[in-house]
Amino acid sequence: MRTAKILTLALALVMALALAACSGASPSPSPSRSRSPSPSPSPSQVVDTARAAAVEDTGGDVTAETGGEVMSAFPGLALQRDDAIATREQSWTSLELGEGQYILIEENTELRIGNWAIAEGKAWFNVNTPLEVATPNASLSVRGTVFYIAHAGGVTRIAVFEGTVSAGDGYDVTGQALEIDAIGGKTYYELTDDDYRSEYFSERLRDWPGLSGEPGGQPQQPPTNQREEMAFHFSETREGVLFGVFVWLNPSSSDPTKTGIVINEYYDDPSFGKMFEYYSTADAAYGDNMSFSVPRIDMGDVMWNENGTGTLPASDGTIYLTVTGGSALTYNAVYNNGGSETYVLSRITKTEEAALFDSE
Questions:
Q1: What is the pTM assigned to this prediction?
Q2: How many other CB atoms sit within 10 Å of the CB of residue 218?
Q3: 199 with 94, same domain?
Q4: Residue 117: helix, strand or coil by DSSP?
Q5: Residue range of the domain that includes 277
Q6: Mean pLDDT of the region 221-246
Q7: Which residue, 57, 110, 244, 323, is most buried by CB atoms nearer than 10 A?
Q8: What angle do CA 74, 76, 81 make, to 5 degrees?
Q9: Is 30 within the bounds of a domain?
Q10: How far is 195 from 215, CA to CA, in rounded Å?
Q11: H or E segment and range at residue 248
């Protein structure tokens, strides 16, 4: 009886397997191969190893653009390359880049992740790996640095407290501030009390290298060759002859309260007809807003050109120069014989300057 039961059960099992094979059904997975669903990550678990940065903390109205969607930023939110984060008025956020590296973002600021581009606003960086940082008018190379960068009204300001930021063309900033105007002109400044201040991060910044909350001594005056000269130009045609004025302004190499000046009035061609050239050092600190006067001395006013030499009429007098915003210069020549002339010269770049003098 017992053997018969076993045979009957075995036969039933064989028939069941055969029937399943004929119908094409697959056997159910064994319990040991089943997999339970993973729990949804909490906000604190959102950070992943592929991120470029993560939101550390926020205050006020802070939004993030990530994966093509705009959302409110929250601590732990992972940000990938080409994502963006933006703060509104009276708002702030801090980002963590790993290995003790942070970015603190002030109000009314938008920062693009990965290429670290700031369209407007201000951000503080404490980083120990090389970065490229950009604003609408500046591209910067960062090397192991504590600094801030701000962009407003077409002007970029960089204040470097530790390490070096390179602004290109040999302009390295260390323990100084650098302003880059709308057309690329660069001017160095000493760090001021305001450079050490932040409405939102004062306590935090005291823990950063080079930032104790107070200026740490006056840095050395930047080398003259690292403080770019400003070049201005005006030209017009007078009775078929080209007339023009160049003015070059540069910092005094020995006295930061003075500005060096080179003036060149020319006829026919800037590379030849040098009617008048004069160098002076004026009692005015080099910067984007200056107003001063220099004597105009009749130096014989000999014009050299392709046709030989000739003498042009001129007179001694005084030249009054006023620079406004670093972009324009008013040139007012008052002659001792009672005459006067006024021109408004535009700021030009080194490339434009070279193009005007390419016939030298």
A1: 0.52
A2: 9
A3: yes
A4: strand
A5: 230-356
A6: 72
A7: 323
A8: 95
A9: no
A10: 8
A11: strand 241-251
